[in-house]
Amino acid sequence: MEFVTDTPGDDRWLRAWAVGYAAVGGSSVLLPLYALSLDAGAFLVGLMASTAAFAGVPGAIVWGRIAGRANRRRPFVLFALIATAAVLLASPMLRSTIALVVANAALWFAVTAASPVLNLVVVEGFEQSAWDGRIARLNALQGWGWLAGLLVGTVWTAAAPRLGYTPISAQRTLLTGFGLLAVLATVLFVRFYPDAAHTSDERFLRRYRSLSREGWRGDRFLRGIPYGPSRVYWALRSLRSGRLSERFGRPLLGYLAGTALFSAGFAVFWGPMPAHLTEIGFGDGIVFLCFLANTLGATVCYDPVGRLMERYRAANLQFGALIVRAALFVVTAFLASRFLIGGALAAIGVTWAVVAVTTTGIVARLADDRFRGEALGLVVALTGVGAGVGNAVGGAVAAATNPVVTFGLAAATVLVGCGVAAVAIRPTRGRP
What we know:
Layout: H1 12-37, H2 42-70, H3 74-90, H4 97-122, H5 131-159, H6 167-192, H7 201-214, H8 220-224, H9 229-238, H10 244-248, H11 250-270, H12 273-279, H13 284-299, H14 302-308, H15 314-333, H16 338-366, H17 372-400, H18 403-425
Helix pairs in contact: 1-4, 1-5, 1-6, 1-13, 2-4, 2-9, 2-17, 3-4, 3-6, 4-9, 5-6, 5-13, 7-9, 7-17, 9-17, 11-17, 11-18, 13-16, 15-16, 15-18, 16-17
């Protein structure tokens, strides 16, 4: 069966979105650094991450539902790009840290407006059997855009002092640059985006559940980004009413509880991380480089982890990675060398690749075929909530204590979550 569509075959509109996502990726580190330059502390930096996480979920739900009812998608993606440009261009003029928290939350609310819609547009005109590959392409381009934004931030913040910029003027200049990049993305998107799309959100939701039952066999970017705003939206849409215990059973529910806990532990560690790196004397360029090392560490390991899952039990891989990750959290608190911290964060990225890939596999195997998509939706929602809570807690603890206590709490939370998950699935040794 041949499909006729006005979606460009070369996906130039999708590359335009990736350009905008580069601005988002770079600003994800830059905005906390700018807040620190405005005398924010670890608590406020953690609050920024927390509000961004919480703003994303309702943003995806609200905008996704409106787009589904309106049957128009172009305005929502345009809104996201225009709002991204507006926030980034306005941020250099902000002098209040609270205003910056609000701006950061608005940025992520806007980005999520496009995420569910893009899933619908990217599969337009393709057989349903090809949808997972199309979504993988969307995530791949977003992933490379994110990495490009971090790389630009690394290069600029390293070069700016040699060009006579003060740290805060360099940050403001880079924010303006990212804002202009979002403007460019908007122009390109208007130029190349198709005029119409015909895939309904109900049809996509049916296929989402089907892909979830099949394990989302996409490339490394699809497997490695299970908790983004678009996945949150479609995951929540896949949930059915009724008692969860009647559909999932104790092993799966216990594992989901453990997942929420260790996800919160991850956020306790990462929420105050920009403040920690700044406090131990790292410049903006080194901070960007540390986050870049972490992202690269994860990205290059998604495929190898997928191959390891063919030889070893997913649960064993995950619990081993969680233990190593918790140990690295504690070790990081005692490090001061940029090379050692960069290496530790890269290793933490590797453990994330293991956790991200194996979580999907474990949940898919524990769940009944009829409810597999719903179970994967629930784990996405729980990890999102855990991240929001963990970021806030991490920032508060870091502001009141020291890195050893903060990262120790993060490690302890991860280990408790690991223990809960391990005990929960122990009776089902043959499955995950």
